[in-house]
Each structure stands twice: as C-alpha cells, then as structure tokens.
C-alpha cells in the first residue's frame, strides 16, 4: 500500500469512528439533553434568582454567560470519560487490534465527536443568553478570539476526560473521577468576582485554569482589556493538553498490552 492510500485509509477510519461516537450520542438522548439543559437552567437560576442580589443593576447576565459557557462545555465533555472507559473494558479495543486500523483512533473519534457536540451546545447556550438580555460589544475579531478560546477549552477538557476514562477501572469509576473537574467553574470567577471570596479560597480561585479562561472570554465579549489572562489561558490549556496526551498514551499502552 502506497503512502497516499495509507493516508486515505487512516482518514476513512477516523471518520468512521467519529460517526460511531456521534451515533452513540444521538442514541443517548437523555445525557445529551442534560448536558445542554443543566447549564441553561443554572444560567437562568443565577440570573433571575441570585442576579438581583449579586448585581442590582440587572446586568448580571452579561457577567455570568462566559462561566455558563465553560460549565456547559464541562458537562458536555464529561461523558467522554464514561464512553472511553466503556471501550477500554468491553474488549472492543482488542478487536480493533486484529483489524487494519489504529486502535487509538477510537479514542480520537470520541474526542472529535465530543468537540462537535459541545460547540453545538455552546451555540444554544449563547442563543438563550441573547434571549434573556445578554448583550455584547465584541467586534468580529473578538468573537473569533472568544470562539477560539472556547474551542481550545473544549478540546483540552475533552482530552482530560478521555485520559480519565482510560485510566479508570471502569465506566462508573470514570464518571466519579471526572465529576471532580465539573466543580472547577464554581471555584472560579465564573459566577462571582474572586475578590468577594475569603482569602484562602480566593488563592485557589485565582490560580486554577477556569478563572483566566473565563476572564479572557469575558474580556473579549465585553470589549475590555485582556491583561495577562489571554496568555494564562493559552498556557493552562497547552499544559493540560500535554498532561492529557501523556497520560492517555501511557494508559492506552498499558491497558492494550503495547509496551
């Protein structure tokens, strides 16, 4: 087989695994609906129940939308941990090893399908936010920057959940371990400024990845200065991606018997 045919077969295999993951998502409608509905419900809760106390001016929806977008992405990505753990424990990886495809492509399929699902969910969240009063002064380039950061965040956290799924002993354990990451937005500036928190908690909130990523999206959408948040966002995402890739490769080789 020449190089062009080999490359073509690799891309075909990737598309097949992506389609497989998307079909699984469509069949699991309950999980997909919850991944979209829960962040929207939380945004409505914070805006209409707590928003008046947090920001009496009525502009709290503008503040809370960036954090809600990241929360939505986190919930949407978390299912990858369970899906990957299922594939790693039900013997399908061993079956793929007997075929002329790369077994790791099945993990890539989960990741790409999850990113596509999350971008769709993010679009729906932004649409609901606009309906309830969210307004932005962002230019076209700033919108592109915000979408780029959101996509990078989704890609990063999807790979983190994939790594958790590969390291976990089974789907139930993967779901439990992955749930820890979903608490990060609540310990950040996603819903309230960090300067309103106790000193010890503010130290945690200011030095975890969600805060600079939230502030970067918020600054881009509100046409305000980025300061160093943009660089911190890229650094956090790059570092976490590297960790996820290393853990995924190590765990995949260990569980698939490739040493």
UniProtKB/TrEMBL annotation:
Keywords of the record, alphabetical order, are:
Cell membrane, Membrane, Transmembrane, Transmembrane helix, Transport
Organism from which the protein derives: Sporolactobacillus terrae
Q: Which GO terms describe its cellular component?
A: ATP-binding cassette (ABC) transporter complex
One short Pfam name that applies is ABC2_membrane
Membrane topology summary: Multi-pass membrane protein
| Record domain ABC transmembrane type-2: where | 30-255
Q: Which family does it belong to?
A: Belongs to the ABC-2 integral membrane protein family.
Cited PANTHER family: NODULATION PROTEIN J
Which residues span the membrane? 31-54, 60-85, 106-134, 140-162, 174-192, 231-252
* Name of protein: Transport permease protein
Q: Where in the cell is it found?
A: Cell membrane; Membrane
């Amino acid at each position: 087989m020449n190089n062009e045919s080999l490359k073509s077969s690799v891309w075909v295999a990737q598309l097949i695994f992506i389609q497989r993951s998307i079909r699984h998502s469509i069949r699991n409608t309950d999980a997909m609906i919850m991944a979209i509905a829960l962040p929207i419900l939380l945004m409505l809760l914070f805006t209409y129940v707590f928003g008046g106390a947090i920001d009496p001016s009525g502009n709290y929806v503008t503040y809370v939308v960036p954090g809600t977008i990241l929360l939505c992405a986190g919930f949407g990505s978390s299912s990858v941990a369970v899906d990957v753990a299922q594939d790693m424990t039900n013997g399908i990886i061993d079956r793929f090893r007997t075929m002329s495809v790369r077994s790791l492509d099945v993990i890539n399929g989960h990741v790409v399908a999850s990113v596509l699902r999350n971008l769709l969910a993010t679009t729906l969240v932004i649409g609901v936010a606009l309906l309830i009063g969210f307004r932005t002064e962002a230019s076209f380039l700033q919108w592109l920057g915000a979408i780029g950061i959101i996509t990078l965040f989704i890609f990063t956290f999807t790979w983190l959940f994939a790594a958790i799924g590969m390291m976990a002993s089974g789907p139930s354990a993967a779901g439990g371990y992955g749930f820890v990451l979903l608490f990060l937005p609540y310990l950040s500036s996603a819903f309230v400024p960090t300067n309103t928190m106790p000193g010890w908690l503010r130290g945690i909130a200011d030095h975890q990845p969600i805060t600079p990523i939230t502030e970067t999206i918020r600054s881009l959408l509100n046409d305000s200065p980025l300061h160093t948040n943009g660089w911190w966002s890229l650094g956090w995402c790059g570092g976490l991606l590297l960790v996820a890739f290393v853990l995924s490769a190590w765990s995949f080789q260990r569980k698939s018997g490739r040493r």
